[in-house]
Amino acid sequence: MFWRSLLASLGLVLGIACLAPGSAHAVQADEVLTDPALEARARDISAGLRCLVCQNQSIDDSDAPLAKDLRLLVRERLTAGDSNQEVVDFIVARYGEFVLLKPRLSRGTLLLWFATPAVFAAALILIVLAYRRRRAAADGAAPLSAGEKRRLKRLLDEN
Amino acid sequence: MIAETGHYALILALAVAIVQTVLPLAGARLRDPQLAEIAVPAARIQFVLIAIAFAALTVAYVTSDFSVKNVWQNSHSAKPLLYKISGVWGNHEGSMVLWVLILALFGASVATYGANLPRGLKANVLAVQGSIAAAFLLFIIVTSNPFTRLSPAPFDGEGLNPILQDPALAIHPPFLYAGYVGFSMAFSFAVAALIDGRIDAAWARWVRPWTLAAWMCLTLGIALGSWWAYYELGWGGFWFWDPVENASFMPWLAGTALLHSALVMEKRDALKVWTILLAIITFSLSLMGTFLVRSGVLTSVHAFAVDPARGVFILAIMGFFIGGALALFAWRAPLLSQGGLFAPISREGALVLNNLLLTTACASVLVGTLYPLALEAITGEKISVGAPFFNLTFVPLMVPLLIAVPFGPLLAWKRGDVVAAAQRLMAAAAVALASVVLLFAFTWGRGPWLAPFGIGLGLWLILGALSEIAYRVKLREAAFAETWRRLGNLPRAAYGSALAHAGLGLAVIGIVATTAWRSEAIIALKPGESAEIGGYTLAFKGVAARDGPNYREQAAVFAVTRGGRTVTELTPSKRKFTVERTDTTEAGIHASWRGDLYAVLGDPLKDGAYSIRLYFNPLVRLIWIGALVMFLGGAISLSDRRLRVGAPKRGEPRAAPAAAGE
Asked: What are phi and psi of B209, to 5 degrees?
């Protein structure tokens, strides 16, 4: 039980650590909002939005001018009083789901999200089946025990 | 003339590669030793020919021969010599020539050092190797000829992308390709074994050194790429999960699994069918990586559709080799005999777990990389799969794997005792857990609260590796002299694997520490003002213009002090490359064991201030030091007599049985 909870928490930490606001950025000083809480939220949102012209870089990390525009847009919406979800929805409405680095669960992405657990489960089942088959085959090939030999003799003698 | 020589050498190499494919296969089939033996000189000649072509291209680059189109497109007379040379593989055509050069080098090495291989196996291996070379040489000659001439020759070249003008990136591709292409050896051996329909523990012993060498190069290649991204891209990150990175990471994951499953096969004659399949998969992923990077399909499915000649060609090569090998596997694998049995709790069992987790992790990276391409091709819907996806699917698989690593080497073959192994790891577990508690106390309120567990995991790996060595030399159980004797007698492979596992631990610590406890400051600074971060004080002296060999730069000057004492001077800069008319950002980095002080010069702001970004990345160096330690572990393992490529030592006429029985 201890190990399992440790496992679960470690899985979380490594995941969360990479998502945490406070990782490195290409944000410029003049973009930073004066309200630290609002700025932290802006960071959080930016880390999950893709720079449209880069390969898998978030707008928070990117030096591209387009990323800068998006960063400013995020901050503009936040200052206007939008919630995090509203900001993301606003940007997705304009640029499509393509901007989300973490694709939403939908019909199109069902396979994406469930592929890894499915592969793991399938591989595990295959291993167990292969192991049991080998085990059974090996048992079948094992030499007869004294009791089995007696029984075999009795059966043969009956004929 | 030199370019034509190179072109001619490539065409000859293609002819030789075809000979190397056809005749030895026929020879092995007809049991004609003379036909089969043709593979050996053919592999050597092929290497010499491709080396001539590569040298010709290099000469064209070094002498700035702009009548060669490839040189004109990717070089400039003002470029420093190092980047003139690295420019050879800094473009599509040249990098493909490097690809086949390394392929031929591996082939020639088998021909030269494989004197102890059974004749039929060697002929088949070299034939398969030759067929891969033939396919890629044809690809180069038909679609990507680097020796095309321009007339009239332009006065000067167009230059190399400045972002590639960097020492780490100059040597990154050769290592990466040595890794990618090196896995072709495992593939060729697997296909040869399937053609033979026979496979045994000796096969694994012949394959392992090549796989290990390839794995080492790939490890270093990936680390160099990540290090370069860290200091060159100016935001202090070290891994993007972008498709090009993933393309190199997938063969690494599969190759790591292969190294471990080949170990089971060598020692216990088990997992044979799986090892063969894994060898095929590993190289298939390398081929796929080449396809992804070289076809342009990653930038956009449409870019691929506009100029499909290269992409379709590589796709055909990929389809032929992967499909062919898998078909051969489906047909012949049932013929292969099954190996030894083992209990679930055993060294073999641990290595099966390793393979389960590594291949699933590899599958998760594969799905994450290809899914957006497939979805766009099928439904037209565009999505992105980035770091958050991999953090949720890949990372959870790594955690149980890393926890299990120290147990593996302490379990006995066939049937292990997990309680006994746990007892031997008690000290390691205690120290790791104690440091988790201490870290909690010290970092309370800073960073994710679970981060100390990540550090504890890294320590667990390092201490677990030490515990294994301590157990094997009977530290504190036997007299000192006995321990000392055992230290000397321990096979190098044992030190190698312990070192590689410890290196992994170092990398884990570096990754967790820097992602969890990085501090940053994004500020507007005027000359004369100063800023503080990570215990350092940076006094901004101003921005000065400087001239480099082929660029002009604006460099900010910071005097760095710590506790009143001068530490260093940092000069982060923005470079303007005059020929290529592109800008790059050069971070100013002060490295220490505590971590890196990382400064980036941003845009000028109002009233003489500049936007400055400062980071302190704790323990970040451990990521690359860890990779280097893994590389060294591989090298030490490779120097083990048992694994040496020429297994029985040359010059020691009757050493063969002894070496084999070890």
From this structure: -60, -40
